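Problem 12. The chain below contains 361 residues. Write out its predicted structure in token notation.
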Amino acid sequence: MDEAALHELLSGRRAGPGASLLRGGLTLASSAYSAVMTLRNTAYDQGWLKTHRVSVPVISLGNITTGGTGKTPTAAWLANWLRACGRRPGLLSRGYRALSPTDQSNTGEQPQCGNDEKLVLDRLCPEVPHLQQKDRVGSARRAVQEFGCDVLLLDDGFQHRRLDRDLDLVLIDALQPWGYGYPLPRGLLRERQTGLSRADLILITRANQCSKHDLATLRSELQRLCPGTACIDLAFKPTQAVDLHWQAHPLSTLKDKNCIAFCGIGNPKGFEQTVSSIEANCKQFHHFADHHHYSRNDLLELEQLAATVGADVVLTTQKDLVKIAADQWNGPPLLAIEIGLEFLAGQDLLETRLRQILHST
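Solution.
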């Protein structure tokens, strides 16, 4: 089941007895998952499970739902901000669906290891070491000892409680804040919303893409769940397009161009809105599973689709482009839309909290 079909099922838009029966089974599994997560969090809260500190500050960036809340551009902003402050940050992540050393990736030179998020972050903050392994306590110690990092960014770290942190930043997508209201697998919640009480700051992403009423309602709900925790409003704006050779192109060149678009990310609707915002004439949008690795057959189908609809250009995301080598593509120009982080409210507050962490540890 691809991402689009999954969202149709979980949202309830997919009707029929079969869909209802499947949702019922997922609800039972969701109850079991939720119970396990509650027990695990209680074990950490009570000290039954041990947390481990390292000798430098740790800043966690995470979310409460699966899928794309915008962690990658936010992590890049944080890493580059820390470097601008004269610090030596290191990125820590698990490396879900990482490429093997033999997988092709579009790096311009040699194939690289790591998943799509690492490959994108390596380009957005090239001077920042990025360690990917399941044992993030071990990778934290390695980052300090081998790379001389003096501050660590724990990517996707809100539920990874084994590594102690000095600041917990949690991203909430304004368009889909609660993952259809259920924990996995019936919904997209990684844990119950009450877990937000652990957050130090809430970063509301895509705050510009929802109505003022919906944003106010979300803020009220967050205030109920985590009283006194400040919220910061973020937007993700397209900045430019890059081709398979990582040459930049202004977005104005895409206006009114016939195109098809595809992606394999956790929030395909977000990318659809991005394509719409640049005023390209998108003939068809194709979804792949999150972190999809593209085969030659996948690319051939996309090339044929582009030819069928008369596309002048094919658009995708940076996370998808890094997994496609230039010599693998034979269709119209393939461009990724780069996304930049924009603060709508609260940038001073975030920077103040970051400075406090850096100076107090």
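Discussion. Residues 101-111 have pLDDT under 50 and may be disordered. Students who got a different answer should revisit the alignment rule from Section 12.3.
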